[in-house]
Amino acid sequence: MNTTTIETTENLIVELRRSFPVSRERLFTAWTDPAEVRLWFGPEGATVHNVSMDVRPGGKYAVTASCSGDACTAIGEYREVTPPSRLVYTWAWENDPDWVGVESVITVEFNEQPGGCELHLTHKGFPTAEHSARHEFGWSGTLDKLARRFQS
Questions:
Q1: Which of 17, 26, 46, 48 could form a disulfide with 67 if both were Cys (CB 3.0 to 4.6 A apart)?
Q2: For the segment 86-102, what is each residue's pLDDT rounded down to a tens digit?
Q3: Which domains does the chain have, with CATH numbers?
C-alpha cells in the first residue's frame, strides 16, 4: 500500500519555549521597542540595519537585516497587541516570490513564572518545509541572542 503525505502550509509550524530571568513586562518591551529589537534580532552573525514598528493592531513593522552579506526585510502587520502578555503578527520576506500570497503568523506569549518569564513563540504558515527549517534555526538563534542580553 502506498502512502502519500501532502505538505501544506498549515502543518509547517515552528514552536519554541524559552525562559528568561526578567519580568514579562521587560521581555514584552524587548519585543516592541525598535531600539531594543535592533540589538538582538536575528541569529548569530546577523546584523540589523533598520527596524520600524507601529505596535498596535493594524500597525505595520519592517526589520531589515543581513546574514552572510545579503540584506533582506521581514514585513508584517500586528493583529493583536496585549501588553505584557501577547503579540500576534503576520510575517513575510519582502521581495521574495516564495512568500507572495502566504499567510504566515507569529504568536508570542509572555507567561509569568517563578524567577522571570517564559516566552512561547509559535510561527506557522510557511511556504515550504525548507522555509520552516530555516526559520526554526533563525528563531532559535534569535532567542539565544535575546537570552544573552539578560544574562547577569
A1: 46
A2: 999 999 999 999 999 99
A3: 13-149 (3.30.530.20)
